[in-house]
Amino acid sequence: MSLLEGIRVVDLTHVMAGPTCTQLLADLGAEVVKVERLPDGDDSRRSVPPTLRAPDGTEESAAFCMMNRGKSGLALDLKTEGGKLVLGRLLDRADVLVENYRAGTLDRLGFGWKQVHERWPSLVYCSITGFGRTGPYAQKGGFDLVAQAMSGIMSITGTARGEPPVKCGPPLTDIGAGMLAAVGILAALVERSRTGRGRLVETSLFEAGIVFTYWQSAIALATGTAPGPLGSAHPLSAPYEAFPTADGRWIVVGGANQANWKRLCAILGAPELAEDPRFATNAQRMAHLGELRAILSDLFRRREAAHWLARLDEAGVPAGPVNDIVEMLADPQTRARNMVVEVEHASLGRVRALGCPIKVEGAPTGPRKGPPRLGEDTVAILEACGFGAGEIEALFAEGAVAAPDRPGPGAGR
Question: CATH topology for 8-211+333-402?
Answer without folding.
Answer: Rossmann fold (3.40.50)
